[in-house]
C-alpha cells in the first residue's frame, strides 16, 4: 500500500485526507492519505524521510509552501510562484515540486461556465493563493487587477503578472468595474470576520469567487443577494487536489467523488 500525506502546521482541520482517500478508493488504488503536523524548521527532514520511506507523494499547506523550495526541485510554475503545494518522488531520489492552486482556480471557474480570457478580473489578496491565481488567470488572458491590505504586496504581484496593483481603499471603484471578483484572502474563514467588500458594490452579470471553503461567507451571501453568480472555494480545493493525484499517479482524478467527500466532511464537522 502506498502512503500519501499532507504536511502543514496546523493540519488537524485539513479536508485533504477525506477528499484524497475518497479519490484513491474510487480509482481502486491501494493507497492511504494521512495528515502530519510538520514544523517548518523540520520540513527538510520530513520530506526526505517521506522519500526514504517510499511515500507516493505529498501535499504541503500553510506555512510550508515557500520553505519547500529549499528542498525540492520546482517546475517553472512553482518556481515563478515561489510556492510548492505538491511534491512528487521520482527515480533516483529526485524530488520535484509543483503548484496546482492556480490551475485549480482556473478549472473551478471554467466548471462554473466562466471564461476569463479578455475579462476584467479583480483578485483581492496578495498571499500564496492570490499569487497562484493571479498568475494563472493572467496567463489565461485575463486583465488582472490586484488589491491587498498591504498595497506594496499588491504592486509587487501586479508587476510579476503584468497587472495593476491597488490598496483595499480602491475596492469601491474596482469591484463594480470587474467582471470576476476573487477573494483570495483568508477573510471570511471565521464568522466574526469583518466585511472586506461593501455588499452594495456587487452587481448582476458579475461572477464572485470566494476561495474560502470552510463556510458560506458573508461576501458570497452579499454577492448572491445582488444577483451576481457565486462560486465557493470547494471546487478549487477539489481541482487542485485532482491535479496532485494526476501528477502522482498519471490517472484522471474522480472530481465528483472528491467534491462529495469534501462537502460531506464539512457537514459532519
Ligand atoms: P496567506 O499567504 O497567509 O495570505 C493571506 C492574505 O489575506 C494576504 O493577502 C493578507 O493581506 C490577507 N489578509 C489576511 N487578513 C486580512 C484582513 N483582516 N484584512 C484584509 N486582508 C487580510 O494565505 P493563503 O495561503 O494565500 O490563503 C488565503 C486563503 O485562501 C485561506 O483562507 C485559505 O484557506 C484559502 N485557500 C483556499 C484554497 C482552495 O483550494 N479553495 C487554496 C489555497 C488557499 P496582507 O498581505 O496585507 O497581510
Structure description:
The protein starts with a strand and ends with a helix. Helix 4 (101-111) crosses helix 9 and helix 9 crosses helix 10 (255-267). Helix content is 39%, strand content 20%. Helix 6 (151-161) links the parallel strand 8 and strand 9. The radius of gyration is 18 Å and the shape is globular. The protein is α/β, with parallel strands linked by helices. Residues 62, 101, 104, 125-130, 148-150, 153, 184-187, 189, 211-213, 233, 236-237, 240 line the site of NADP nicotinamide-adenine-dinucleotide phosphate (NAP).
Q: What's the gist of this structure?
A:
The protein is an alpha/beta fold and 269 residues long. It is built from 10 helices and 12 strands.
Walk across the major sheet and give the strand order: 2-1-3-5-6-4
Total number of helical segments? 10
Question: Over the alpha carbons, how many angstroms does the gyration radius reach?
Answer: 18 Å
The residue ranges in which pLDDT falls below 50 over 5 or more consecutive positions are: none
Spell the H/E element sequence: EHEHEEHEEHEHEHEHEEHEHH
Percent helix range: 25-40%
The ligands bound in this entry are: NADP nicotinamide-adenine-dinucleotide phosphate
**Mean of residue pLDDT values:** 97
Main sheet attributes: strand count, strand direction, barrel closure: 6 strands, mixed
N-to-C terminal Cα separation, in Å? 28 Å
- What shape does the CA trace take? globular
Number of strands: 12
Tell me the β content.
15-25%
Question: Structural class of the helix and strand makeup?
Answer: alpha/beta
Amino acid at each position: 500500500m502506498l502512503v500519501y500525506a499532507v504536511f502543514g502546521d496546523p493540519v488537524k482541520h485539513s479536508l485533504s485526507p477525506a477528499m484524497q482517500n475518497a479519490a484513491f478508493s474510487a480509482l481502486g488504488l491501494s493507497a492511504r492519505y494521512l495528515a502530519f503536523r510538520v514544523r517548518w524548521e523540520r520540513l527538510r527532514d520530513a520530506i526526505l524521510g517521506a522519500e526514504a520511506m517510499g511515500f507516493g507523494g505529498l501535499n504541503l499547506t500553510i506555512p510550508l509552501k515557500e520553505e519547500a523550495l529549499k528542498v525540492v526541485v520546482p517546475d517553472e510554475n512553482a518556481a515563478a510562484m515561489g510556492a510548492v503545494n505538491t511534491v512528487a518522488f521520482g527515480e533516483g531520489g529526485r524530488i520535484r515540486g509543483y503548484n496546482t492552486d492556480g490551475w485549480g482556480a482556473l478549472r473551478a471557474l471554467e466548471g462554473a461556465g466562466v471564461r476569463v480570457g479578455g475579462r476584467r478580473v479583480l483578485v483581492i489578496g496578495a498571499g500564496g493563493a492570490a499569487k497562484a491565481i493571479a498568475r494563472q488567470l493572467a496567463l489565461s488572458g485575463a486583465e488582472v487587477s490586484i488589491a491587498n491590505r498591504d498595497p506594496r504586496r499588491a504592486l509587487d504581484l501586479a508587476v510579476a503578472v503584468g497587472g495593476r496593483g491597488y490598496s483595499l481603499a480602491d475596492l469601491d471603484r474596482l469591484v463594480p468595474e470587474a467582471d470576476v471578483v476573487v477573494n483570495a484572502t483568508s477573510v471570511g474563514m471565521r464568522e466574526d470576520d469583518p466585511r472586506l467588500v461593501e455588499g452594495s458594490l456587487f452587481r448582476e452579470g458579475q461572477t464572485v469567487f470566494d476561495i474560502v471553503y470552510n463556510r458560506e461567507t458573508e461576501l458570497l451571501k452579499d454577492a448572491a443577494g445582488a444577483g451576481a453568480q457565486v462560486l465557493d472555494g470547494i471546487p478549487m480545493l477539489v481541482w487542485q487536489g485532482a491535479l496532485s493525484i494526476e501528477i502522482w499517479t498519471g490517472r484522471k482524478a474522480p472530481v465528483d467523488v472528491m467534491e462529495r467527500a469534501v462537502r460531506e466532511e464539512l457537514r459532519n464537522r
